[in-house]
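Hi C.,

You asked whether I'd gotten around to modeling the 336-residue construct. I have! Everything is below, sequence then structure, no commentary in between.
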Amino acid sequence: MFFYFLKKLGVILPTFFGVTLVAFIFIRTLPGDPVLLMAGERGMSEERHAALMTEYGYDKPILVQYGYYLTDLLSGNFGTSIITKKPVLEEFMVLFPATVELSLCGMFIAVFFGLPAGMIAATRRGSAFDHTVMTSALTGYSMPIFWWGLLLIILFSGILGWTPVSGRISLLYFFEPVTGFMLIDSLLSEQQGAFKSALSHLILPSIVLGTIPLAVIARQTRSAMLEVLSEDYVRTAKAKGLGPNRVIGVHALRNAMIPVITVIGLQVGVLFAGAILTETIFSWPGIGKWMIDSISRRDYPSVQGGLLLIAAIIMLVNLVVDLLYGLINPQIRHTD
């Protein structure tokens, strides 16, 4: 297992290096001068502009800038925001819990509904339930996030008035963050109604963010279960007189979960990508909205650092998924 881990780690390191190069080049291709954007409508003199270009290193050749960028990364410095003058890593860590909370709730909805739906659809292949689940999954996968989010806001917030439109909690409540997760902090605050308010703000964004992963997990679970249910060992288990719950829940599901776990890991990237739109639509104060604002302000260090940190998290999650993959099926450790 240790050598299996080393092989996977050997793939991640060059990938991480490639991400630094892509992030650096991508930001430099964006139009606009970040130094002029700092001045806003006031403008600045040519001398001041040249001084700031030298201060931030934008007057140096691209390769030299990239070398400085890598040197800072190796020392744990992800840069300082041009706009807020705060370290990028500090800003990221303040906003990251909001995105994690939203992503975890979205993934919980996707797994909680997607796995059972896919399992039941596989065991009832060709039934009305099977066709309904697959049609719903295809519809959910095809819907753009911004359109789906606006529809839910219009229905549940505008017409029915059941949920708030934006934010993480009502302005009636205030407490110092302890964990950064609003659901937990609202419970720790012991303020009456705070948890209910935080939960009501989380419902719609979680549903919107979890819709596409739910559809993917349901379809993948059904496909994997259908493949496993046709195997000889499943027919043998049925012939031995084992109950359907044991055959499906133990023998079939364990092997069907191998590709499903891989898909769940891959959905982490989908969640972060979807979080950018979801947080923008619902004014959710997470890294997605922060990245959009940083791009519009040409805040090079924030965008570069944010892209790199998000990519690192996605790669780390996929590494964990690969390790779980090897634990569930030991043969993979010897063949991969």
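If it helps when you're writing up: The two ends are 11 Å apart (CA to CA).

Thanks,
B.
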